[in-house]
Please model this.
Amino acid sequence: MPEVTPDAVLVAEEDNVTLRCHPPPGAVTTWWHRDDAALRPDGRLSLSPDNQTLTVTAAQRGDAGLYGCLVANAVSTNRSRDVNVTIAFGPEDVTITPPGPHHVPVGATLTLSCSASAAPWPTFTWLGAAGRHDGPTLALGPLSPNAGGDIVCQALNPYSNHSQNSSGVTVWVWGECGVTPTFGVGVSVGSREALGPP
Model:
């Protein structure tokens, strides 16, 4: 069976990707595929004269996928294992759902989720009125009268170390004494500083 090296690729956008197909003895012809679709030299994709080396120049996120090669001789065709190529980007479009503002009674609970467009998958940190918490989901409650405020989700790409903040979501907690919050927080895109009361 042919083998493709390296066995996994992770590069940033605009970097080059090079894959090598190692055919068994006696192989005559080599083909490449991505996500089971045949690949041919075109623009940023080039092949060596023997078709055994594939190069993607200035890789874009659309170049990500499962790559492999097929080799053939007069009597048989063999396929390599697929190699996962990841093109790192983002995070972008960091979003909290539901978006708010949220008006909730004292003693109630509220669950917020954070999402972003990125590769590899980002880590998430919640900042603001609820303190600092890690993970894509934030569970609040039972909420006390002074638990209101603004909450921000920060996404961090572990490969590029680039971060982006969501827009702030305000939580208003109401009860017999009226509506809080008593403070708010600021939002700055890309900041990694914990947000809290002024």
Summary: The domain at 89-179 is CATH 2.60.40.10 (Immunoglobulin-like). Residues 42 and 109 are 55 Å apart (CA to CA). The chain has a mean pLDDT of 88. The two ends are 64 Å apart (CA to CA).
